[in-house]
Known about the structure:
This protein is mostly helical. The protein is built from three helices and no strands. The mean pLDDT is 90. Pfam families: YqzH. This is YqzH-like protein.
Amino acid sequence: xxxxxxxxxxxxxxxxxxxxxxxxxxxxxxxxxxxxxxxxxxxxxxxxxxxxxxxxxxxxxxxx
Length: 64
């Protein structure tokens, strides 16, 4: 999977929830964790749309 495309999806989703990535940038470990959760969710449910997976993972990340 293209990492730049995935990063753009994550950034756009974070912006939808009001999380400004310029003021609060993700560090490498946070990005790695999000990427791993997204990719494992896609492997577990191949029928699920990538946008939906990213939205679910980002929602979980912001609300924890």
